[in-house]
Design a protein that fits this description.
Layout (H helix, E strand, L loop, with lengths): L4 E2 L2 H13 L8 E7 L5 H7 L6 H15 L2 E6 L3 E7 L3 H11 L8 E4 H12 L11 H15 L5 H21 L7 H17 L4 E4 L3 H12 L5 E5 L2 H5 L3 H4 L3 E4 H4 L8 E4 L20 E5 L15 E4 L1 H11 L5 H24 L1 H22 L9 H16 L5 E2 H9 L7 H18 L11
Parallel strand pairs: 6-7, 6-9, 7-8, 9-10, 10-11
Antiparallel strand pairs: 1-12, 2-4, 2-5, 3-4
Length: 456
């Protein structure tokens, strides 16, 4: 079987003929509705962001919007933007549906279509449109959002290919511009503000609300700044401490029940709470009566202005937007943007055929879907070890990428060589099983008369 010569070109031709028969165009309409937060639109942003929602609620919201639009919808929310990508829908219609589904007047989104949408997403993921130019966090968040939509079956394999091109372009842009070692944007802002505050006031009694990823980073920054009296407030202190046990031992961990009694009166509060609505407002003020500085790094905000007293200073999203603009002056912004436009032009030309060739895109989607389907069976196979399972999904995508990049026809033995020579540390039994399954699957993709020679 391994000496067989495989020709999958018929699959591409079949998709092309089907598209022609149905009267389909060479590319689907792709629309982008994006809102970057400013002091003027924060109230609207709070209504349409999915930050703070549970995964179940977020999936239900996107699914309902997709049904309303009669189109697949991709949603992406961070602490400084929210955007929606719609497939098979124009930008203005997408914007109108988002506004209607959230019960708001027409939202002033920035609207893009087709390659303009692709270009804008490349800029966003490359950190060219961030509060802190070149920041890395946005790409990580974007990847997580793509995986979320795939896992929840909110976007098809075919449409997810659109995002793969964006990720590839992002890698090239970041490498050429040197955006490979910048720090996390909000952490940069926090550290800069914290250093300035401590330099002015000296040691402070600090409290960190929340002990998730951002909360842990805040505690690390405080300890690195020689702050020894750090209070951490979380819903379940013992469970939270397990996320960073060594760090937790250097702090005083308490519950919100104890915090709300008002016995602790720190002069610095850093909030990293993840809630869909503000925790502290006029109905539920901060349980601190003494002068204090409150740094709110939550999104949506965990503090309303009415949640602090007149003797307390609230540094919320309005504040961070203004600060980030000043820090951004460290970059030669105009020059960097000019360089990036030229780079994106080059990359766009490189990917334009793939973006516009619907038949090729559907062929790729078919291959990826087939390999990922196999991966799910491998993960439950009795041959799979605990070390194998976490690698199999990614390995299946690597195999799919190899298949899609091969000139047609190709020898099945070449595919087998790629599989068995992987650098992944898979068990020998599992690797042999994957090799057999992949070859069997690829043969099944082929027309009977497209497999020449070779005997199993």
């Amino acid at each position: 079987m391994s000496e067989a010569l495989i020709d999958l070109a018929w699959l591409v031709e079949a998709y092309a003929q089907r598209a022609e028969h149905k009267g389909e165009t060479t590319s689907d309409l792709v629309a982008l509705a994006a809102l970057k937060f400013t002091s003027d639109n924060i109230d609207v942003a709070k209504k349409i962001t999915t930050e703070g929602m549970s995964e179940h609620d977020r999936a239900a919201y996107i699914r309902a919007l997709s049904e309303q639009c009669s189109a697949e919808i991709f949603e992406f929310s961070t602490c400084n933007r929210v955007l929606y990508v719609g497939f098979g829908i124009d930008a203005q219609t997408l914007s109108s549906h988002i506004s209607a589904s959230n019960g708001t007047e027409q939202i002033a989104f920035d609207l893009f279509e087709e390659t303009d949408a692709w270009r804008q997403l490349v800029k966003i993921c490359s950190g060219l449109d961030s509060f802190m130019m070149g920041e890395l966090q946005v790409m990580s968040q974007f990847r997580k959002s793509i995986n979320f939509h795939k896992e929840q079956e909110l976007i098809s394999h075919y449409n997810s290919g659109f995002f793969e091109h964006i990720i590839a372009a992002n890698r090239s842009i970041r490498k050429q511009l040197g955006f490979t070692s910048t720090t996390v944007s909000m952490l940069t802002l926090a550290t800069t503000a914290l250093d300035a505050l401590l330099e002015e006031n000296g040691p402070m009694n600090a409290a960190v609300l929340g002990f998730g990823e951002m909360g842990i980073k805040a505690v690390e920054a405080l300890i690195e700044a020689q702050q020894t009296d750090v209070l951490v407030v979380s819903r379940n202190p013992s469970q939270s401490a397990e996320r960073a046990p060594e760090l937790a031992q250097k702090c005083t961990m308490i519950s919100y029940e104890e915090w709300n009694k008002g016995q602790h009166q720190p002069d610095l509060i850093i909030s990293t709470i993840r809630n869909a609505s503000p925790t502290y407002n006029d109905q539920r003020p901060l349980p601190v009566q003494t002068p204090a500085t409150v740094m709110d790094f939550s999104w949506p905000p965990s503090f309303e202005a009415s949640g602090v007293s007149s003797q307390q200073v609230l540094m919320g999203m309005d504040h961070w937007i203004k600060v980030s603009r000043n820090l951004g002056k460290e970059w030669d912004y105009d020059s960097t943007i000019g360089k990036s436009e030229s780079m994106i032009n080059t990359i766009q030309a490189r990917y334009s055929d793939a973006l516009e060739n619907k038949a090729q895109g559907k062929f790729r989607a078919h291959v990826y879907q087939t390999m990922e389907g196999l991966a799910k069976t491998w993960e439950t196979s009795p041959l799979a070890t605990d070390g194998d399972v976490p690698q199999l999904g990614a390995f299946s995508r690597e195999i799919a990428t190899w298949i899609c990049h091969q000139p047609s026809p190709f020898h099945l033995s070449a595919l087998s060589t790629f599989v068995v020579n992987t650098e992944r540390t898979l068990s020998s039994a599992m690797l042999a099983h994957v090799d057999r399954e992949v070859k069997r699957s690829v043969l099944a993709m082929s027309k009977p008369n497209s497999v020449f020679g070779g005997a199993s």
